[in-house]
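Sorry, any thoughts here?
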Amino acid sequence: MAKTSKKEARAGVTEILALLRHAFPPAPSVHFLIALVTLRWLADARRDSLPLPCHLELPGCLEYHVPLTLHEDQLGHWFEAMFKQLEDANPTELNGLFSGLDFTSPRFKSDDDGRSLLMRAVEILWFKDRYQCSFDLMKEALAIARSCLVTGFSAPEFNTPASLCELAARLAQPQAGESVYDPACGTGQMLIHCEGTLKCSPKQVRLFGAEPHATAWTLAKVSALYHGFSSEHIGMSDSLQPENVLESDDGQRKFDVVIAHPPWGAKEWRAENPPPERHERFRRGMPPKNNGDYAYLLHMVASMKDDSGRMVAIVSSGVLSRGAQEGRIRMRLVKDDLVDAVIALPEKMFHGTPVGGAMLVMRRKRSTRNVLFIDARGFATGAGGKNTFSAQAIDWIAHACAARKSEPGVSALAAIDEIVEHGYSLSVSLYIRAEQENSSADIHAIRCRRKKLHDELGGINQQIDDLLDAVMSGDEKRARLTEPLR
């Protein structure tokens, strides 16, 4: 049988999601979709002895053909039994992932043509082996599910653009044997993209993550498994709460690489007067209760290893310049020589919002006290109404960060004294403005030169016209002199 095309796979997944959305809210409909496609993927792998990118034990009762033989009254119970068996066989990878779904819910009841919603979904996924390549089906399901969550919850962090994930991974440069942690991992996009920078097997890098939203957490776990990573250490929790801080024998657990696209401006992330916590994540200052931006940043800083630790955070532009308590925290981060680079991002890069943002790079061990500022707003490439970074743009930014050189109008190295003069603001425009002004002066000079040349060209054209008129007049005179007399 010919391999299913990407277009056919996307159409099938979209059809199932549309059916589910008629019966369920956005989050449960996405959860059911991923459950159905995952079970189809695993049943397909067991039937044809296909190698999985991850290690999972598949129970013998997971027979591919079974759902095609069951009555609709039996179908929901079979799905629940299969998911329980899978979770029991793989507790570290799958525990709690799908067992809470109610496949016998009345919402799956028969429609006008007598078929239940679940029966129709099985027909689309299983009937006549319509989708032979389950890997393509899984890929499309994960992509569509992420987009649905962003739309349903106005949460851009659930689907970080691929070009930003790749850039963050290039800047962090995870190496074989290292640990990578995302304290607000959403659907797992930033964690998974670390694979692209590796020159080794994905399993040589250990992934850790936290995500409080159940459906986003499910997507993160399944995405990790689909790409060959273990999902054992991707937990469903709010990393900002002290009871959820990952621990080791000597206190808070530390990681080589910390990356995140946390939710911007998280409200009510802490109590009005929180008790002291033993991990001292907020020793540089307590972030405001109604904006968790710096809470995530300080948590990420505290999660870096003392020797090899580095972090990349996608933040709102306000993080770079807001004052009051956040300004004092930013001052301490600069004074502690943690801030390595600041990259201004273009507008319209994120799903669900037109605003731009910034990428903040920090390191424990730095060879210089200068901070590199890059204005990447001019590197955007339009695609489908959104902006993205091309592979060439990502290469340029990554190489600029590694070389740490100033490029007029695009990048600048700022000494700590200069940052102090600007009140510890990290707004990129403050440090690249001089180059921009020089560029404006150059443009003005070019325009003046262009006008002068245009005027000179006008004079030359007039001289040519005069000469042509003279030639034409001479020709007419000679023509009259040679005209025969009558």
User: Anything to note?
Assistant: Residues 156-426 form a domain with the Rossmann fold fold (CATH 3.40.50.150). The longest strand covers residues 339-345. Residues 370 and 415 are 5 Å apart (CA to CA).
